[in-house]
Amino acid sequence: MIVEHRTYTLKPLRTRDFLALYERAALPLQQKYLGRLVGFFVSEIGPLNQVVHLWAFDSLADREQRRAAMEADPLWAPYVDALRELDVMLQQETKLLRSVSFSPV
């Protein structure tokens, strides 16, 4: 299993705007195609204005297939356009994590 760990750094005071758009437009598609949401978080201490979400996949191939299907959905492009128009994103970081034998996840 692998876990995709995404961190979005947002413009100050824009986290609520991002979360509202994400929950309305992106989350339903990601739940449909990506499936296993491990967690979705906002930073409270340390670097602020960050949103972190974790998604579990069986393998890299599983991730690639699921993301390709999501990106092909005709509702995905309008979300990406709306996100660009909202202009809240400063940085995106994506990590792929591999679980070890004793990990509960």
Structural summary, described in words:
The structure is a single chain. Helix content is 41%, strand content 32%. The chain is α+β, with helices and mostly antiparallel strands and 105 residues long. A four-stranded antiparallel sheet has the order 2-3-1-4. A hairpin with a 7-residue loop joins strand 2 (36-42) and strand 3. The longest helix has 19 residues, at 15-33. The N and C termini lie close together (8 Å).
Distinctive features:
single chain, alpha+beta, Alpha-Beta Plaits, four-stranded antiparallel beta sheet, 4 strands
Please describe the topology of this protein:
Blueprint: E1 2-10, H1 15-33, E2 36-42, E3 50-57, H2 60-72, H3 76-86, E4 89-98
Antiparallel strand pairs: 1-3, 1-4, 2-3
CATH fold-level topology: Alpha-Beta Plaits
Order of helices and strands: EHEEHHE
Roughly what percent helix?
A: 40-55%
Mind telling me the CATH class?
Answer: Alpha Beta
Number of helices: 3
What is the beta-strand fraction? 25-35%
